[in-house]
Amino acid sequence: MGVVYYLLHPNQLRSIIQWKVWHDPVHHRDPSKEDPTLKSCFEFLNKTSRSFSAVIQELNPELLVPVCLFYLVLRGLDTIEDDMTLDIKEKEPLLRQFDKYMETDGWTFTKNGPNEKDRELLVHFDDVVTELKKIKKPYYEIIKDITIKMGNGMADYALNAEHNENGVATIKEYELYCHYVAGLVGDGLTRLFVEGNMANPKLLERPALTESMGQFLQKTNIIRDVHEDYLDKRRFWPKEIWSKHVDTWDDLFKPENLPKALECSSEMVLTALKHTEECLFYMAGIKDQSVFNFVAIPQSMAIATLELVFRNPAIFNSHIKITKGDACYLMTKSTQNLQIVCEVFRDYTRRIHKKNDPRDPNYVQISVQCGKIEQFIDSLFPRQDPKQLGEAAKPKERGQPGMDAGEAFVLGGMVLLTLFFVSGLMIGTAWFFGARFDSLWKTDSIYWPSSETGTATPIEHKEL
After folding, report:
1. Distance (Å, rounded) from C-alpha 92 to C-alpha 86?
2. 294 labelled catalytic
3. What share of the chain has pLDDT > 70, as a percent?
4. Does the active-site annotation cover 42?
5. How far apart are CA 422 and CA 416, in angstroms?
6. Catalytic residue among 44, 140, 177, 316, which?
7. Considering the entire predicted model, what is its pTM?
8. 51: which residues sit within 8 A by CB, 6+ positions away?
9. Could you confirm whether 350 is annotated as catalytic?
């Protein structure tokens, strides 16, 4: 975006400047104390993730390296799964045994296609292996466990010919896919947070909260990236949803079917919105500010992205995303506290509700869900103080006596006296500045006509 854009949108520029100037990280990473292999890991973190890199590097030192390595391991796994140049016979064992490779000194992988954007990470994966062996055992075991589960899940999908050819069929399959690629990540992160004493251990007893965190992010990304995935011949929108609106997947992208496509996208947005309350509840269990920032920023970005894609025709012919100014605004808001994050969610939920179209088959359900989100936020942070409301209601409950006749007479008299005083003051002021009131009583006044009968004088027109 150029200078002209920011001149026309000064609020965007203001948000960027505010974030750059006033943002003060809770923790600062110190590269001078890092080994060369760890520096290499952070370099790959910067290369492979623009959205998570900054917030990871501001984490509490206790979790900084484990979370960084966790991300790189899963990114390596994802790079193998995404590479369509790899034969399935080679890809499957790589995915299922990736936990073994991350324990093998010096292991690297160089067979990714030349166009695979993150192939360099696997070429130098030995640096990640080296650093994994230095972290605390509990952290390592968590990373290994999630790697095993995700690797097997990815392998199952890679072998699923029906999925590869026709995409996701049912909503259940859709949510299972989101579980493998995002829900498991949330599970691993929550266990890391609790192990580091940065989150309430009760979160481990509520896996649905953790699952919703991942589902909300992944579903939002799938909705936003529908056109990009369409060009890559990938289908993640479940047939159970899109088949209600169009006959074939390709029909969804035809201009003449745009109204139906928007209705389909509305239903997809609805499936994502249903996770919102649990996401907010999850964030209430975070005890460390840097960890709160880490989980809150992506969630705020997600609700803003949902508002952007909701009933937006552009998602079917281009790749859209929130502006840099909006991103900086959201990061500023999301690095404070839960109440402010809730206000962000309330704001974007209201925008979604405002854009909702009564002609849309999902209109009622979306409106109800928006109402549920607001109601949940009000349950966390009531906009009125119940104590004050209770105190105000007590006099009414006791039945205060009404005004008696004497009080009414005195009040009426005071009103009349005030009226006479103000009127006299105004008339006196007018007289002092030269107003004439005596003309009101003259008989020839226009205000007080004479009692004498006037006679008309005929007008002569000699020229006629």
Report:
1. 10
2. yes
3. 88
4. no
5. 10
6. 177
7. 0.80
8. 298, 301
9. no
